[in-house]
Amino acid sequence: MIAVVGVIPGDKLAGTALSGLGIVFTLGRKSDGVLESAARLDAPVHKNSLEYVGETHVYRIKGPNGTHKIGESAQGTRVRDGASIRGEQQARALQRETGDAYESQIRKTFPDKRSAREYETNLIERFRRMFGEDTLPGNKTNR
Predict the structure, then answer these.
(1) Cβ 31 vs Cβ 14: under 8 Å
(2) What's the predicted TM-score (pTM) here?
């Protein structure tokens, strides 16, 4: 547990690191100078962060009208058959919703989130250039 003992204007602390009880924090502030956040510097990088380094794959979900969506995930693959955990979750949800058959397919695997996101964006843009802007109904944007 961390207790705030006093108030120090945030502009004096923003961007600095504090340590206490062996834990290092970085501080942020709102524009009015009030301290807004304290984040652990030793905390693991979230898998949604572009800074995440770890296996990330790009998948597609195919339905009765062709490719429905292209996505990326760091959730991993099923041991049984190597299918995308996230892609299969979404395919099952679409099947329940529409009654049509959907399946996922891993397109490519990357060592980090940034590379996978770049590939995903380029693939969506290329797909829409080839087949029209109204394709990929499961992708609202090019990301």
Answers:
(1) no
(2) 0.70
